[in-house]
Design brief:
The chain is mainly beta. The chain has two helices and 33 strands. The strands form twelve sheets. The chain has a six-stranded mixed sheet, with no helix packed on it. Strands 24-33-26-31-28 form a five-stranded antiparallel sheet, with no helix packed on it. A three-stranded antiparallel sheet has the order 17-18-19, with no helix packed on it. The longest helix has 13 residues, at 9-21.
Length: 476
């Protein structure tokens, strides 16, 4: 047996001693002088524990291909390192297995042993990428600092997760305090989402909004033309469209938003129509309530426009009715004596002679129309030195209307009295009734001939069909 790589001189001396005890013959057989193999030394191969910690071959040498023994190297003979190894320098320990951050060295006791490696060499202290920059310090691998996973937000719990050798991932989860973590930012507890349909409730949902009660009013689209927007399952849903349909065929109806919850309806009327009081009218259509108004889109599409031309104002006491400014009106239907509305305009009736046949005359078909109308007349009552004039007037109403009739004379300072049924004096006498008579009886000193004025005024309601007859002349 060939033993190689023995470095312990004591073990070598022991072998020599064993050989001497066998007759000093180290031949292949005992006593022939050969070096004994394992079977010739106490019948067993000494193990490493019995040879001062040295290394020995623990198996038979392999035969070389040519049948000779090999060189006895560890690689060839299958020798293993079963204990401390003798050394004289660090170089002889390079194949010693050592831990990270250690290097094989030849110790002061002449044995190979692990020694501390250089500081600062990168290593892996804990197979955790969340400790960064692990380094060797005094022969030990020391874990580095944790990566900075702090996102600076008070509403998140930050953590590092190792994802492989040298790689990691920072995770940020919402916490139950400090608000809600939403879209990368912290939202204060109780704050509402922009649409108002959810709020931040970190105790219920730390990383999102919590829906409010369904049907809570909200603003879905900032469009006032969608009314009654409301919340459904945390989302703001637009309500129905505003009711801007006026139901008219001549209008185009649209809604214009004036705010999130306000709007106005616009009803554009067709260019050939009018939309008035909830109804459509074609161009030139007459207002059913006013014959002097028509639909005139060029002037207005939402109101009646004035028209011109003949009309009927419904008043039989007017004539020549025409439209003006949207109003139908005509000229009052006057009696033949008009205009005689004042003393200056008094209608002359001629002269009569006192106390002779035909000294009274009648004028029929007169009216007290229009309202506040006054009829004035004048005549001459001619008397003589023996017969004094006594001018008077009588009114006979056609429909029992009340009239006032007054007679006056133009002689200044005349003294007079009034006839039966009339009142007054000083040259003026009046009477009122449906058949009144007023007579002036001058003093004998008055001139024999007098100019008389008659004034007739309707006391009741005026009508062009209520006529009266005036009888005037001398009433002795």
């Amino acid at each position: 047996m060939r033993i190689s790589h023995f470095r312990n001189s004591s073990w070598f001396g022991l072998l020599l001693l064993v050989g001497a005890c066998g007759g000093g013959n180290f031949s292949g057989d005992a006593g022939d002088g050969a070096v004994p193999d394992a079977s010739t030394v106490d019948g067993a191969v000494p193990d490493a524990s019995t040879v001062d910690g040295g290394r020995v071959d623990t198996g038979s040498p392999d035969a070389a291909p040519d049948g000779s023994l090999d060189d006895g190297s560890i690689a060839d003979t299958g020798l293993v390192d079963s204990g401390p190894r003798l050394c004289a320098s660090d170089a002889e320990c390079m194949d010693l297995g050592v831990a990270p951050c250690e290097v094989p060295v030849c110790g002061t006791d002449g044995l190979c042993t692990p020694g501390p490696g250089p500081d600062g060499v990168a290593c892996d202290a804990d197979s955790n990428a969340c400790t960064m920059d692990d380094r060797c310090i005094a022969g030990a691998c020391v874990a580095g600092a944790a990566p900075d996973c702090d996102d600076g937000l008070t509403c998140t719990d930050d953590a590092c997760t190792s994802t492989g050798p040298g790689t990691y991932e920072c995770t940020h989860t919402g916490s139950a305090t400090g608000g809600c973590f939403i879209d990368g930012a912290c939202v204060a507890a109780g704050a509402s989402a922009p649409d108002g349909c959810s709020t931040c409730d970190p105790t219920s949902e730390p990383v999102g909004y919590t829906p409010v009660i369904d049907d809570t009013p909200c603003n879905a689209d900032s469009n006032g033309c969608s009314v009654d927007d409301h919340c459904v399952s945390g989302a703001c849903v637009p309500g129905p469209a505003a009711a801007c349909d006026d139901g008219l065929s001549c209008t185009a109806d649209t809604c214009t938003s004036s705010g999130a919850n306000t709007y106005s309806c616009e009803m554009a009327v067709a260019s050939t129509s009018c939309a008035i009081a909830g109804a459509c009218y074609a161009d030139t259509t007459t207002n059913p309530s006013n014959a002097c108004e028509i639909c005139k889109p060029a002037a207005s599409r939402t109101a009646w426009s004035s028209s011109t031309g003949p009309c009927n104002d419904g008043n039989r006491c007017t004539t020549g009715d025409t439209c003006s400014g949207g109003v139908c009106g005509g000229t009052p239907l006057l009696d033949a004596a008009e205009p005689n509305n004042s003393r200056i305009q008094a209608r002359p009736l001629g002269a009569l002679f006192a106390r002779i046949s035909g000294n009274r005359r009648a004028l029929a078909g007169l009216t007290g129309y229009p309202t506040f109308d006054q009829d004035w007349f004048t005549f001459q009552d001619i008397g003589s030195s023996r017969v004094l004039a006594t001018p008077g007037a009588h009114v006979q109403a056609g429909f029992s209307q009340l009239y006032e009739v007054c007679v006056s004379v133009n002689f200044a300072g005349v003294r007079s009295s009034c006839g039966a049924g009339s009142r007054g004096g000083a040259g003026r006498c009046c009477a009122t009734g449906s058949s009144p008579t007023a007579v002036v009886i001058p003093d004998p000193t008055a001139p024999s001939s007098l100019t008389a004025y008659v004034q007739v005024r309707l006391v009741g309601v005026a009508s062009c069909t209520d006529t009266y007859t005036l009888t005037y002349g001398d009433f002795p």
